Here is the input.
Amino acid sequence: MSSIKHHLNELRAICKCKNKKRKAIVQNASGGVIRTIAQLGKNILNGNFKLSPRQKQRLRRHKNTLRALSLKRSSLKKKRKLLMQKGGAFLPLLLAPILSAVAGSLFNT
Here is the structure.
């Protein structure tokens, strides 16, 4: 959770911007941001975040990408490349529900 809070601004920017800018941000992102995105993917696969049936259905299309991203043995370079190739529609689907939950928990404390 602390890494999400630490990289919250970068994750919001990735989630909200258009496709070309998103790829540029991912290309120049620090390793911490890439690791945080991978950690979020693993948490979704483990069921640690509640997703609506619609969100699950939309992420189901990207299940192989999500699994490859969350593997611990994948290098940072490989994860970055995967995010740049599949990041167009995949990243907002992955980040939006989590960022809203994190933002809600920040305001409640």
